[in-house]
Design goal:
The complex is a heterotrimer of chains A (359), B (494) and C (152).
Chain A: H1 2-16, H2 18-27, E1 29-31, H3 40-60, H4 70-79, H5 84-112, H6 120-142, H7 147-161, H8 167-175, H9 182-214, H10 220-223, E2 232-234, H11 235-260, H12 283-294, E3 298-299, E4 302-303, H13 304-320, H14 322-325, H15 327-330, H16 336-358
Antiparallel strand pairs in A: 1-2, 3-4
Chain B: H1 2-22, H2 31-39, H3 42-47, H4 51-54, H5 59-63, H6 72-75, H7 89-99, H8 102-108, H9 117-123, H10 140-144, H11 164-172, H12 175-179, H13 189-195, H14 197-203, H15 212-216, H16 236-244, H17 247-250, H18 259-265, H19 267-274, H20 283-287, H21 300-304, H22 309-316, H23 319-326, H24 331-336, H25 367-399, H26 405-424, H27 430-493
Chain C: H1 2-41, E1 53-58, E2 66-72, E3 75-81, E4 87-91, E5 102-104, E6 109-112, E7 117-119, E8 125-127, E9 136-142, E10 145-149
Antiparallel strand pairs in C: 1-10, 2-3, 3-4, 4-9, 5-6, 6-7, 7-8, 9-10
Classes of the chains: A mainly alpha (359), B mainly alpha (494), C alpha+beta (152).
Chain lengths: 359, 494, 152
C-alpha cells in the first residue's frame, strides 16, 4: 500500500514538481490562541458549499425548471425518488447553514481585523462570495415554484425595481418580463445552476489561493507576543483532521435536520391568486426587508423604499472597503471603532431579523 | 257615415229619454250610461252590475269626457277629456289612474286593494310587449273584463277561483296563440289540471282549492325559470305550503299539514332550499304541477326512479316489488319515507334496532329475508370498518409527511364500492351485494398496504438516521482519538 | 531487555484498534453516504413526473364504443372511444355531487349512478341534475400510444 502510494507520488512529481507543493504544505501552520475556533468557519462554509454542489447536481437529475413541472418534479423527488427527500432537505438546510456560516466567518474576520494588509483582496473576494451566496439563495428559493417563493420573488424583484435609473431595467432583466412568470423561473434556474456557480468558482478559487499563499491571519494581540510564545499547530495533519471532524459533525447535523425538520413544499404557485398575508423573505434578507418597513413612505422627494435601498447599498460599499479606510489596523494598531461598527451591525441584524420573523 | 247616423240617433233618443231619467236616482247623473243604456250595448248593460258603478263612478271616470251633460258633442268631446275606447296600454293606464293612487283608493274609497298591480304586471311576463310591439301582452281588462267588473269573491267574476282556470286558458290553451310567443311552452295545463286533485275539487265548486293564481300569482307572474318566481323550484315548496301547511285551512280535507316542515328537513329539502341545488326535487317533481296528485302505490318507485334510476331498477326486478305492491305498501316510501327523506343510515339495513327489514323479516318468519338482511348488514359494517381503517392509515402516513397521493386516489374506489353496496341493497340479492362488497374489501386492503408501507418508510428514515449517526459518531470518535494521538506524538517528538 | 517490548505491546494493540476503528469507520461512512446516492441515481419505477400528461395505453388495445377510468395525478379521467374510433377524455367526476361516472355501452352515454346524470360523448349534460359539462382533456396519439394531457 505504502509503496504504491510512493510510486504514484513520484510519477506525478516527475511531471509537475509536486514535492515543492508538498514542502510548502508541510510548513503550513495555524496559530493557536483563544480565538482559534473562528478559523474553522471558513472551512465549514466551504464544506457546505461543496454539499450544495453535490446535492444540487443530484437534484438537477430530476428537477424540471418549467412552470408546469417545477413543483411537481420536486414532489416527485420527495415522494418517488429513493432518498430524494434526503437530498432535497439537505440542499435546503445546507443553503441556510451556508449563509449563516458565511456571516459568522465574515464577522469573526471583521472583529479580528484579519482583513488588514495584506489580506484586503481576501476580504473583497469574500464579500463578493457572500453576495453571490445570497444570490444563490434568492434564485434557488424560486425554483420550487410554490406560493411562498413566487410571492417572495415578486416582492424582492419589486424592491430591486425601485432603484433610481437602473431599477426598472434591472427588474425586467431579473424577471424576464414585466411580471414574475415562467420566464422568471427559467432565468433564475439558469442563474442558479450555471451563471452563479461559474462566477462563484472563479472568485472562490481566488479567495482560497490567497488564503493558501498568505496563511491564517494572526490576531493583533497574538502578533505582539514574543515569537516563542506564539503557539501554532501544523495544518497537516492537525488542523485538517480537526476540520474534517467538524465537517463530519456538520454532515450529521444536516441529516438530523433533514429527518426531523423536512423542508416543506407547500402549495403550487398561482399567479392569479392574491398574495397570502405575511409574505416574508428568507431570514438572511429579513433585516433589510424589516428596515424598509420602518422607513416612512416618503422622505423629502424620494420614496421611502429608494432611500432604504440606497442606504443599504451605501452601507454595503462602506463595509466592503473597510480594509482600505481602516488605516489603523493596517498599521497594527487596535481599532475599537471597527468593533463598535461591527457590534452595531451584528446586533442590528439580529434584532431586526428576530422582529421580522416574529411579526 | 254610420257614425253620423248613430250620433243622430243617439241625440234623438237622449233628448227623448233625458227628461224622465233626469229625475231618476243619483245614477241618473251618469248621462253617458243613460244614453248608452237605450242603445242596449253590452258595455252599459254590464256596467250596471259593475262594482265601479256601485261605488258611484261613471263612464267618464275611465273614458273621460263629461258625464253630466246630455249634449253628446260636449260629453264626448276632447275638450272634456274624452279618450274614446282606449286601446292597448291606454286601457291599463286608465285603470291605474285610480288603482295606483293611494289618495283615491285609500283616502276616498277606503279600499284595501293593493296599489301596485300595474307595477307588478309591468315587471311580469305579461308586461312584455305583444307581437305587435305596440302594447303589453295583457291589459287589466284581459282578465278582469271591462264593464262588468266585480270582486274576485263574486261568483260571476272571471277571476273568481272557480272561473280563473277558464280565464287563463283562454290564451294559455290556445296552441296557435301561444306559439306566437313561446312555442315550447306547453298548452295542456288545463287538461292536466282536470286530472289533479285540485282540478277535480275546483270543478266541484270548491273555491278554497288551488287554481292558477294560487301558485303563479296574479299580477306578478314570472317564468318558472326566474329565481324570483313563486313557482321557481327553490320557492315552489313554500308556495305549496301556503295552503298545505295551514292546518286550519286544510282541516276539511283530512290530510296532513306538515309536509313542508318534513321536506325542509329532508336531504331533498336541504339540497333544494339551502344549497339551491336545482337537481333536487321540489313538490312538483314527484307530484306533478298542473296534474298534481300523490303517486300511486305501484308507481312510487318509478317516480323516485326518475333520479334514483339504479335503485328503482333493482327494486323493480327484486322479489320486493310483487311483495310490496300486493300488500299495497308504497314501495320506496315504506322504508325511506316520502317527505322527510333523510340520508339513509346503515341502521336501516339488517335486523337490529332501527332496521326496517326487521319490520317484516323475523327470526322465525320470512326467515330467508332475515338471514339476507343480517348478512348484508354485517358485510356493510365490515366494509365501513375497512374503509375507516384505510383512511386512518393514509392520514397517519400523511401526517408523518409521507407522500400518499396514489393511496388517497384509491380511497375513492373504496368509497365508490361502499356507495354501490348501498344501491345493491335494493336488489335484495345477497350475491350482487357481496360481489361489490368484496371489491371494496380488495381496494381497502390495497390502500391499507400502501399506507402502511409509507408509515414504515417513515420509521425506516429514523432508523437510517440513527444508524448513520452511529457510524458518524464512531468515526468522529476515532478521528478525535487519532488527533489526540498525533498531537501527543508531536509533543513527545519535540 | 524485556521492558521495551512489553511497553510497546499495549501501544501497538491500541494503535491497531484505533486503525481498525478509523478504517472501519471510514468504510462504514462511505457506505452510509454512497448507498443513498446510488439509490437516488436509480430511476424510480414511475419513470417520470406524471402530471401534465399520462400514458393511457395502446390505441390498438382500446375497443370501440368503450370507456375506461384512467388515473391522472390524483383525479380520475374517463377515456372513451367512439364507434367511429375517436378517442376522447373527460374528467370522471360528476359535476353534480362528485360521484365517479361510468361509460354505458348500452345507452352510449357517460352515466352517473348516483342521481341518473347523463353526459353525451362530448361531455355535455343530456339528462339529470348535473349543472355543468365534464371538463375535457387533450388526447394525443403517438404511434400506437395514447397520451392524455391537461388542456394548457
Amino acid at each position: 500500500m505504502k509503496t504504491l502510494w510512493n510510486r504514484t507520488f513520484t510519477w506525478i512529481d516527475e511531471r509537475v514538481q509536486l514535492s515543492d507543493v508538498m514542502h510548502f504544505l508541510e510548513k503550513k501552520s495555524v496559530p493557536v490562541h483563544s480565538h482559534s475556533v473562528w478559523y474553522y468557519f471558513g472551512g465549514v462554509s466551504l464544506f457546505l458549499f461543496i454539499i450544495q454542489v453535490v446535492t444540487g447536481i443530484l437534484l438537477l437529475l430530476y428537477y424540471k425548471g418549467s412552470e408546469e413541472l417545477a413543483f411537481e418534479s420536486i414532489q416527485f423527488i420527495m415522494a418517488k425518488v429513493e432518498f430524494g427527500w434526503l437530498i432535497r432537505s439537505i440542499h435546503s438546510w445546507a443553503a441556510n447553514l451556508f449563509i449563516l456560516s458565511a456571516f459568522i466567518h465574515m464577522f469573526s474576520v471583521l472583529f479580528e481585523k484579519a482583513y488588514r494588509k495584506p489580506r484586503e483582496l481576501t476580504w473583497l473576494s469574500g464579500m463578493i462570495l457572500l453576495f453571490l451566496g445570497m444570490g444563490f439563495g434568492f434564485s434557488g428559493y424560486l425554483l420550487p415554484w410554490n406560493e411562498v417563493s413566487f410571492f417572495a420573488t415578486k416582492v424582492g424583484t419589486d424592491i430591486a425595481g425601485v432603484l433610481p435609473v437602473v431599477g426598472e431595467p434591472l427588474m425586467v432583466f431579473l424577471r424576464g418580463g414585466e411580471d414574475v412568470t415562467g420566464a422568471t423561473l427559467s432565468r433564475f434556474f439558469g442563474f442558479h445552476v450555471a451563471v452563479l456557480p461559474g462566477i462563484f468558482t472563479v472568485v472562490l478559487g481566488l479567495h482560497l489561493l490567497l488564503v493558501q499563499r498568505q496563511g491564517m491571519s494572526k490576531p493583533l494581540s497574538y502578533e505582539r507576543l514574543p515569537a516563542t510564545d506564539q503557539k501554532t499547530m501544523p495544518f497537516f495533519p492537525n488542523f485538517m483532521l480537526r476540520d474534517l471532524l467538524l465537517w463530519l459533525l456538520v454532515l450529521n447535523l444536516l441529516a438530523i435536520l433533514a429527518v426531523f425538520f423536512p423542508w416543506e413544499l407547500g402549495v403550487k404557485a398561482d399567479q392569479f391568486a392574491p398574495a397570502p398575508a405575511g409574505i416574508k423573505p428568507e431570514w438572511y434578507f429579513m433585516f433589510m426587508f424589516q428596515t424598509l418597513k420602518y422607513i416612512p413612505g416618503e422622505l423629502w422627494f424620494l420614496e421611502g423604499e429608494v432611500v432604504g435601498i440606497l442606504l443599504f447599498s451605501l452601507a454595503g460599499v462602506v463595509w466592503m472597503f473597510i480594509p482600505f479606510w481602516d488605516k489603523k489596523s493596517s498599521r497594527g494598531e487596535e481599532n475599537r471603532f471597527i468593533n463598535y461598527i461591527g457590534l452595531f451591525a451584528l446586533i442590528y441584524i439580529i434584532i431586526l431579523t428576530t422582529i421580522g420573523w416574529l411579526s | 257615415m254610420a257614425l253620423v247616423n248613430n250620433n243622430a240617433l243617439a241625440i234623438v233618443l237622449c233628448s227623448v229619454l233625458a227628461l224622465p231619467t233626469a229625475f231618476g236616482t243619483a245614477q241618473a247623473q251618469d248621462q253617458c250610461l243613460t244614453c248608452h243604456s237605450t242603445l242596449e250595448d253590452n258595455a252599459s248593460t254590464a256596467f250596471k252590475g259593475d262594482i265601479h258603478f256601485r261605488n258611484g263612478l261613471t263612464c267618464a271616470s275611465c273614458h273621460g269626457g263629461d258625464s253630466h251633460t246630455d249634449d253628446m258633442e260636449k260629453a264626448m268631446g276632447t275638450a272634456a277629456g274624452f279618450i274614446g275606447v282606449p286601446k292597448g296600454d291606454r286601457i291599463s293606464v286608465a285603470c291605474a289612474k285610480c288603482h295606483s293612487d293611494a289618495g283615491v283608493m285609500v283616502k276616498k274609497y277606503n279600499s284595501a286593494i293593493p296599489l301596485d298591480q300595474m307595477e307588478l304586471v309591468e315587471g311580469s311576463v305579461h308586461g312584455k310587449l305583444s307581437t305587435s310591439g305596440r302594447e303589453h301582452i295583457a291589459q287589466c281588462t284581459s282578465c278582469h273584463g271591462a264593464h262588468g267588473i266585480v270582486t274576485k269573491t263574486n261568483r260571476s267574476s272571471p277571476v273568481h277561483p272557480l272561473n280563473l282556470p277558464a280565464t287563463c286558458t283562454k290564451c294559455h290553451s290556445d296552441a296557435t296563440f301561444m306559439r306566437t310567443y313561446n312555442p315550447s311552452l306547453p298548452v295542456d295545463q288545463l287538461e292536466k289540471y282536470k286530472t289533479s286533485v285540485h282540478g277535480k275539487r275546483n270543478k266541484n265548486g270548491d273555491p278554497k282549492t288551488a287554481e292558477c293564481a294560487s301558485c303563479h300569482g296574479s299580477h306578478e307572474i314570472l317564468s318558472a325559470k326566474d329565481p324570483r318566481s313563486q313557482v321557481h323550484p327553490t320557492k315552489l315548496p313554500a308556495t305549496c305550503a301556503k295552503c298545505h301547511s295551514d292546518a286550519t285551512y286544510m282541516k276539511p280535507y283530512g290530510i296532513a299539514s306538515d309536509q313542508f316542515e318534513q321536506f325542509a328537513r329532508s336531504v331533498h329539502g336541504q339540497a333544494l332550499l339551502e344549497k339551491k341545488d336545482l337537481g333536487a326535487p321540489a313538490c312538483n317533481d314527484c307530484h306533478g304541477n298542473h296534474g298534481a296528485a300523490p303517486p300511486g302505490v305501484e308507481s312510487v318507485s318509478k317516480v323516485c326512479g326518475t333520479c334514483h334510476a339504479l335503485n328503482a331498477e333493482l327494486f323493480s326486478s327484486s322479489p320486493h316489488k310483487k311483495a310490496f305492491d300486493s300488500r299495497k305498501l308504497p314501495e320506496c316510501e315504506t322504508c325511506h319515507g316520502n317527505h322527510e327523506i333523510v340520508a339513509a343510515k346503515d341502521e336501516l339495513l339488517g335486523v337490529g334496532e332501527g332496521a326496517v327489514c326487521a319490520w317484516c323479516h323475523k327470526e322465525n318468519s320470512n326467515i330467508k329475508g332475515y338471514q339476507i338482511a343480517r348478512t348484508m348488514r354485517s358485510l356493510a359494517d365490515s366494509l365501513i370498518a375497512s374503509e375507516e381503517n384505510a383512511i386512518m392509515l393514509v392520514d397517519e402516513a400523511e401526517q408523518k409527511g409521507m407522500e400518499v397521493g396514489e393511496a388517497k386516489f384509491k380511497l375513492r374506489e373504496i368509497r365508490q364500492a361502499r356507495l354501490e353496496t348501498r344501491t345493491k341493497v335494493h336488489s335484495f340479492d345477497l350475491d350482487q351485494f357481496s360481489e361489490v362488497a368484496t371489491r371494496g374489501f380488495g381496494s381497502a386492503a390495497k390502500v391499507s398496504t400502501e399506507a402502511s408501507q409509507a408509515i414504515d418508510q417513515y420509521y425506516f428514515r429514523r432508523w437510517g438516521l440513527f444508524i448513520a449517526s452511529l457510524i458518524i459518531t464512531i468515526l468522529a470518535f476515532a478521528l478525535y482519538i487519532s488527533i489526540r494521538r498525533i498531537e501527543k506524538e508531536q509533543v513527545q517528538n519535540r | 531487555m524485556d521492558t521495551p517490548t512489553t511497553l510497546d505491546q499495549p501501544q501497538h494493540s491500541k494503535r491497531d484498534f484505533l486503525k481498525y476503528l478509523l478504517g472501519g469507520g471510514i468504510l462504514a461512512w462511505l457506505g452510509a453516504v454512497f448507498y443513498p446516492v446510488f439509490a437516488y441515481l436509480k430511476p424510480p419505477k414511475q419513470g417520470d413526473v406524471e402530471v401534465t400528461s399520462v400514458k393511457a395505453g395502446k390505441l390498438s388495445e382500446i375497443e370501440k364504443e368503450s370507456g375506461v377510468i384512467v388515473r391522472f395525478g390524483n383525479k380520475p379521467v374517463m377515456m372513451v372511444r367512439t364507434a367511429e374510433g375517436e378517442v376522447r377524455a373527460f374528467s370522471a367526476t360528476c359535476t353534480h355531487l362528485d360521484c365517479t361516472v361510468q361509460f354505458r355501452k348500452d345507452t352510449g352515454v357517460i352515466w352517473c349512478a348516483c342521481h341518473n346524470g347523463k353526459y353525451d360523448l362530448n361531455g355535455r349534460v343530456v339528462g339529470g341534475p348535473p349543472p355543468r359539462p365534464l371538463d375535457e382533456y387533450r388526447v394525443i396519439i403517438q404511434a400506437d400510444e395514447v397520451i392524455i394531457s391537461s388542456r394548457t
